[in-house]
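Intended use. Records like the one below are meant for learning the mapping from a protein sequence to its folded structure. Do not use them to infer anything beyond what is encoded.
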Amino acid sequence: MDKWLEQNWVIKLGSLVIAIMLFLMVNMENQPTGGNQAGGIPGVTDGSRTLEDVELSVMYDEDEYVLTEAPETVDVMMSGPQNVLTLSQVTDDQEIFVDLTDEGAGVHYEQVQYRGFPSDLSISIIPATVRVALQEKQTASIPVDVEFINEEEIAEGYELGEPEVDPSSVDVTAGEGTIEQIEAARAVVDVEGASGPIEGSFDVAFYDDDGDEIDVTADPPAVDVNVPVTSPNKEVPLRIGRTGSLNDGEAIDEITIEPGEVTIFGPVDVLNDVSFIDLEDINLSEIDGDTVLERDVEVPQGIERVEPETVEIDVQLDEEATAEYDDFEIMIAGLNQDQSAAFIDPETGEVNLTVSGSESLLDRIERSDIEAYVEAEDLEAGEHTLPLVVQGPQNAGFQEEGTDVTIAIEEEETDNENEQENNGNEENDEDDEDNEADDDD
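Structure written out for the chain above:
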């Protein structure tokens, strides 16, 4: 007997028997009581198992319809042999579904079906019947609006331009009822701190009348948006000078700058210092007949840009004519408050003016459009010969301009000087009276 127990295979066999008995005892304690052979051997004993939140598939004609209502999951209760239940899981070969392939648009109450489960199991679906709704599929094209947020946070003085959207509209495919709810398609752009153009790709979302977002997808799902952001700006006029002279017998009828104003962009403090822009002078010696010239607009210092960058100069010529303005009064400009002046030559302070220009220009000129004067600013008392300055409409010539005019400037006594002189006279009168009194003594 001892020799038999010492055999290695006997010990191994005994260990196996004990392990099997322990396994059977544990499984019999855990067996459900609902089986036909409670406490029996696994694989023979029946039980049940419930799988919760199993995905529910809906089969329908996706080319024609859109699924608008259906539960996402159901519970699956499986009953059958315990060993099958223990190994059973929902795999790719198993499916819980409702079949609407032969149904049209509308609300349907359909029995939930299953397939791919072991034949040994009894399957129950909870709920057994579900409500499913289909709508006829439609595609609509919706124009895309751009909605700005944080507009109050844009860089100071800058302005948002009209956004460009590419593509300008997107397609949406959904049920008829869903499309009818769509009020707008929007791309939202945050402009906080913007001081230059905003470019990028932005998602498109759909909204109903109440501003609530509708859960449908745009095609394409995003659009390219370009938002120009302009710096502070203002319009300023253009000026152009003239050099040289026209051929004899010719006169400028009109010089037109098109456009006559340009828009300058830049910081506000720099804009305030710019009131006009001078263009390159026209050399009249190079003008032969009516001419159209092109000029670049110079960008003033501190200005970011000018629009437009070039302008056209239209020069119209005509035959030269003259007009006479007799006894035209000469003004004296720039005298100090304590100065007065008188004309020496011409003594009358008047001059006969000859104005040249095109006939149409001379017809438009009034005497009040012309000024003739000499500049006496900062001159001291005495006699001065000054050039005559004549100003009038553009494109008019004045033959007497630059003619010598002689004036005499005198310093007028101020009130203080008069008071001092009167005080001096009074003191002298008092001294005379004192002297007369002494003589009487």
